[in-house]
Design a protein that fits this description.
The chain is of the alpha/beta class and 588 residues long. 63% of the residues lie in helices and 9% in strands. It starts with 8 loop residues before the first helix and ends in a 10-residue tail after the last helix. The chain binds adenosine-5'-diphosphate.
Length: 588
């Protein structure tokens, strides 16, 4: 049944077939064999019915006992084939979905930070669940459609064998159904894309709301959140209803058309049998064939609708997979040259893709000499985090250049650049994995001894060693087994193990309890020793000890120098110190 499908349908399916389905050739072959068997056995039903009725009417007692036996054998064989078919189809379909999920995840983990930030995390997550479910359903239905086509072909052969004239009458009626089927398919695809978008938005609003549970209660925002959720649910209901209404009109239409076909055939048959031209067996067999064929034919009719929903999901998934990262290596990029870690910001400008009109950084220039510490200070929104993010090329500068040991970081390989850098943020990131793995990921391939050395240097050995399974204890989601200070020490051990040329540090704004604080500060001092450090400083002790202070405001370096010199100058930095913008508390 050839249907004129929307232009992009065929390439999408062909791509899925080539990239995913063909990887599972044996599964596809198995599904096809079972499908052919199911279709073959189904096609035998009308013939068996015709034979039995003709034998009954002929009072052929000798073969009469044979009929029930044959029926049992055929149904048994068909059931077995059906089971094999369902399992084979699902195992291929689920592997295809798994493959797509893998590709999507790989694309997202390698995508530019800016690209990932465009969608809410929950919208990304929905692509793996909602869109994947749509694709799975469409894929299952499409493969089942092959079975249906074969079944219809088999039944058509039966009908042809039983009575070719009637066969022609029945066939003439089917093509009438094609026009509405394709028209509705297009509408469903459009509606479905909107629905998937809505699903993603719903997921985003829900996660956001649950994450804010504390604030919602404290500020008594329950009613406001309920109203927001109600609006989202209503939107979702409307877009779902839109799809269901379109879909709902299809089945009754096909049913009605089927009814007309059956009526026409029966009228003709009745006339023929009553005028003595056919047998009761032929009549019954033919009507049975028509009735059996009506289910697969209807399924084929609604296939296009399911297919369009799946394609909406598939094109949204491929859109993410196909987005080319903009932060890529130049062809012929070389490894970062050896050096001691001299970092130079040379007239750096940067503008966020979706930021406000102002540039986040403009004409920012300073030099971090090897082994020295540069403290970035300034009011919130001055561009400190942005400046730090440029060093490992999480974003690319839009003007000027960042150089490490003389090399523009855009000219060197991403691997060598990022291997030379460790980042320690305000919130210690702990993966839901073992203590060992959480440190070893700083330098893959590190030995147990090296990991333990790093942990000792970061004052993390003592508490990791006494966990129930020692270093092999899983730390829980977000490191729920550890205290705040312990988490920071684990993340410092990770950075120490990495042994980077350059350390990027976003200092914690609030002090921990005195004991933890002292241990964290000691670990930090060990980490910073002999390394070039760029630190977003929140502590007075850090800025005071820094070799260079860069005071930033609105993306520019307003002044640079040592603590003493800048205090003397009495500018932005002196003002920040005076207004106690820095945490003063020295560890006990
Ligand atoms: P700081 O770290 O000094 O507080 P940031 O580097 O975070 O400052 O921000 C500098 C400017 O860039 C601010 O005006 C901020 O609003 C903007 N900005 C930061 N992150 C983004 C982003 N992901 N998209 C758009 N604008 C951003």
């Amino acid at each position: 049944m050839a249907k004129p499908l929307p232009a992009s349908t065929v390439p999408l399916i062909r791509r899925l077939w080539r990239e995913q389905v063909l990887r599972h050739r044996s599964g596809v072959a198995m599904a096809l064999v079972c499908t052919a068997l199911v279709a073959g056995f189904t096609a035998l039903y009308p013939v068996v019915i015709q034979q039995s009725f003709d034998r009954f009417t002929a009072n052929d007692t000798e073969t009469l006992w044979l009929v029930p036996v044959v029926i049992i054998i055929i149904t048994m064989a068909k059931s077995l084939a059906q089971f094999g078919q369902a399992v084979a189809i699902q195992s291929v379909v689920l592997r295809v979905i798994e493959g797509l999920q893998g590709d999507l995840f790989r694309a997202l983990t390698r995508a530019d930070l800016a690209a990932v930030g465009r969608d809410a995390p929950a919208r990304h997550a929905a692509r793996f669940t909602v869109d994947a479910a749509m694709i799975r359903e469409a894929l299952t239905k499409s493969i089942n459609a092959i079975a249906d086509v074969l079944t219809v072909v088999g039944l058509a052969a039966s009908m042809l064998w039983l009575d070719w004239q009637l066969f022609l009458i029945a066939m003439a009626l089917y093509p009438i159904a094609i026009l509405p089927i394709t028209r509705l398919g297009k509408r469903i695809r459009r509606a479905s894309g909107g629905m998937q978008q809505r699903m993603g938005e719903t997921a985003a609003v829900l996660t956001e709301s649950f994450a804010a549970a504390r604030v919602v209660r404290a500020y008594r925002l329950e009613a406001q959140e309920e109203a927001r959720a109600a609006r989202i649910f209503a939107g979702l209901r409307e877009s779902l209803l839109h799809i269901q209404r379109t879909r709902a009109s299809l089945d009754p239409m096909l049913e009605a058309l089927g009814g007309i076909a059956v009526a026409a055939v029966i009228a003709f048959l009745g006339w023929r049998v009553s005028s003595g031209a056919g047998t009761i067996g032929e009549f019954t067999g033919f009507v049975a064939a028509l009735l059996i064929a009506s289910r697969p034919v209807r399924a084929l009719g609604s296939l296009n609708a399911a297919l369009q929903e799946g394609l909406a999901g598939l094109s949204s998934v491929y859109a993410v997979i196909d987005e080319r990262p903009r932060i890529v290596e130049k062809p012929g990029a070389v490894a970062l040259p050896e050096g001691k870690g001299r970092v130079e910001f040379d007239g750096v400008g940067f503008r966020y893709e979706q930021g406000n009109a102002d540039a986040a950084l403009e004409g920012l220039s300073f030099v971090a000499e090897p082994g020295r510490t540069v403290a970035l200070v300034g009011p919130s929104g001055a561009g400190k985090s942005t400046a730090l993010a440029l060093v490992p090329r999480l974003h690319d500068v839009t003007a000027g250049a960042v150089r490490i040991d003389g090399a523009d970081i855009r000219d060197v390989t991403l691997a060598s650049l990022r291997d030379a850098i460790a980042y320690v943020g305000q919130d210690a990131v702990i993966f839901d994995d073992t203590g060992f793995a959480n440190i070893a990921c700083g330098r893959p391939g590190a030995s147990q001894a090296e990991v333990e050395d790093a942990a000792r240097a970061a004052a993390a050995h003592e508490f990791l060693a006494v966990l129930p399974q020692g270093y092999q204890t899983v730390l829980g989601t977000g490191g729920s087994r550890l205290s705040g200070g312990q988490k920071q020490r684990v993340s410092l051990a990770r950075a120490l193990l990495r042994n980077p040329r350059i350390l990027l540090l976003d200092e914690a704004t609030s002090a921990l309890d005195a004991e933890n604080e002292a241990l964290v500060q000691q670990a930090l001092a060990r980490l910073r020793a002999g390394r070039t450090t760029l630190v977003i400083a929140h502590r007075l002790s850090t800025v005071r000890d820094a070799d260079l202070i860069v005071a930033m405001d609105r993306g520019r370096a307003v002044e640079q120098g040592s603590h003493a010199a800048l205090m003397e100058a009495g500018g932005l930095y002196a003002r920040l110190v005076r207004t106690q913008a820095f945490v003063e508390a020295e560890p006990a």
